[in-house]
Input
Amino acid sequence: MSDQKNEAQSLFLILSAIFIASLVACNLIFQTFFILDFHYTIIILSVGILPYPITFLVTDIISEIYGKEKANSLVLAGFFASIFIVFVLYVSNLVPAVSFSPVNDETFNQVFGLFGPAVFASMTSYLLAQFIDIKIFHLWKDFTKGKLLWLL
Output
């Protein structure tokens, strides 16, 4: 394998790891909220929104370098990673904590008990938004003949 091909594969793996980590982080931290105060307007947001834009940046980079099919594959991989995390948390919630555990069953359930339904709901939006983003990116790229991609 050539050095250039190894570098391209390494970059793809790094970008994929950032994408999936950002997506899973969004789903794990969504139950904590913060306030943005713009003097006369107060907005309350989930901290899950903080890593989410990174997923769009990464799919745009992957779309540009590796193409639409790789970006779409990564979106599906992120979906399956999130479903796997739901399964792990579900099983983890079934296992009782020992008495000396720093996190008891009630606290664990309070933090992760709604994880499954919330993630399934958000994953529907996620899939739609990511596939639309990739489609629009490539339509714009074709329309501008690869120029002005920064406008997206």
DSSP finds five helices and two strands in the chain. Strands lie at 33-38, 41-46. The helical segments are 3-29, 52-66, 68-94, 105-112, 115-143.
